[in-house]
Design goal:
There is one protein chain. The protein has a single domain, classed as TIM Barrel (Alpha-Beta Barrel), CATH 3.20.20.70. The chain is 44% helix and 12% strand. The protein is built from 14 helices and nine strands. The chain has helices at 2-11, 16-25, 28-46, 85-98, 115-128, 143-152, 166-172, 179-192, 209-222, 248-261, 271-276, 280-286, 299-302, 322-331, and strands at 49-52, 54-59, 102-107, 133-137, 156-158, 195-202, 226-231, 291-292, 335-337. The radius of gyration is 19 Å and the shape is globular. The two termini are 30 Å apart. 5'-deoxyadenosine binds at residues 68-69, 160, 162, 201, 230, 232-233, 235, 272, 307-308.
Length: 347
């Protein structure tokens, strides 16, 4: 295993079979070695800096029906909400005072948010906080819409590909949602000039290790600026609510592999990781993640943005808990910086 890990660290790429071997045979010893290598690379590129992004969950209305997701259209039990532009600006004001210089506008695919309304929201945030980056995470749109948002000032876009295998994709989504359109969106976003983030769930139902290798090879080929991954966590009011959750160890292993594959990649230690284990957030960072995304959504609606059961949304997940998070990161040798935290090419 060590030889394979060393090879990945120096060449940044492995053959399909080698990745499969790494994923299938990574025991605790090899994992410690892998994480240490990933931390080395992380430190070389980012020192001990952790970037923060303020997450604003705009709306939990969604026209999609992803079989795993708690805010899917068919979940009649979800209590729906959408924030007003004023509420969003208030979140940014709070966030900016706390030191956030990136705002992530995330939401379900809500038709009530017209392109015009999104453009005007981007313009208002940019004029109030010209020193801050705007990341959008609003799902699949037409290229023309992505272009309008970019021209209005959006800098980055997050859209997980979810799984790079079309057959697996079809098991997790209804027929009218295709991997092909997902990929079309990702390539459109990249060609427009966004810093693009993609990602997937680890341990999603029906996923095989071969699927995960395909995800890694897709990422190697696509070269995104950000990759968000977290364990699959069931939501009781979805068709996949009875499935078992993903593994934290495998999620951490993949974070470390990604760090070695793309040394300057922005990798969040996700809320799903923080949810699956009390120290998941820190363990993500110790496996090579370098971004955290505390929640700036108004507390009155925060509990309604429930993609999976028991989602962590208080304490260190919350922007109000930033000091506590800072303390916990300091304890493992890292510090939060006030910065847009843009992707930097390796020179
Ligand atoms: N468990 C873990 N992650 C989930 N997501 C959606 N539902 C779940 C779940 N049940 C992830 C998807 C989506 C992102 C916003 O959250 O990968 O892209």
């Amino acid at each position: 295993m060590k030889r394979l890990i060393d090879k990945l660290a120096t060449r940044r790429i492995l053959e399909k079979e080698e990745l499969l071997r790494l994923l299938s045979n990574c025991d605790q010893n090899s994992r410690s070695y892998l994480f240490a290598k990933a931390r080395d690379v992380d430190e070389r590129h980012f020192g001990n800096q952790i970037y923060i992004r303020g997450l604003i969950e705009l709306t939990n209305y969604c026209k999609c029906d992803c079989l795993y997701c708690g805010i899917r259209r068919s979940n009649k039990k979800a209590e729906r909400y959408r924030l007003t532009p004023d509420e969003v600006l208030k979140c940014c004001e709070t966030g900016h005072k706390l030191g956030f210089r990136t705002f992530v506008l995330q939401g379900g695919e809500d038709s009530r948010f017209s392109d015009d309304s999104i453009v005007s929201l981007i313009e208002s945030i940019k004029s109030a906080y010209p020193d801050s980056a705007i990341t959008l995470s609003l799902g699949e749109k037409r290229k023309a819409s992505y272009k309008r948002f970019f021209d209005a000032g959006a800098d980055r876009y997050l859209l997980r590909h979810e799984t790079a295998d079309p057959i697996h994709y079809a098991k997790l989504h209804p027929n009218n949602q295709t991997l092909q359109n997902r990929m079309r969106c990702l390539y459109d976003l990249k060609s427009i000039g966004y810093q693009v983030g993609t990602g997937f769930m680890v341990g999603s139902p029906y996923q095989t290790l071969e699927n995960l290798v395909s995800d890694l090879l897709f990422i190697q080929d696509f070269q995104p600026q950000m990759v968000g991954i977290g364990p699959f966590l069931p939501h009781r009011d979805t068709p996949l609510g009875h499935q078992t959750k993903g593994s934290m160890e495998l999620t951490l292993t993949i974070i470390a592999i990604l760090r070695l594959m793309i040394p300057n990649l922005l990798i969040p230690s996700t809320t799903a990781l923080a949810t699956i284990h009390p120290s998941g957030r820190e363990q993500g960072i110790l496996a090579g993640a370098n971004v955290v995304m505390p929640n700036l959504t108004p507390t009155s609606v925060r509990k309604k943005y429930l993609l999976y059961d028991d989602k962590a949304c208080t304490d260190q997940e919350a922007a109000e808990g930033l000091m506590a998070l800072q303390g916990r990161l300091k304890a493992i040798g890292y510090r939060i910086v006030v910065s847009r935290g843009d992707f930097k090419p390796i020179d």
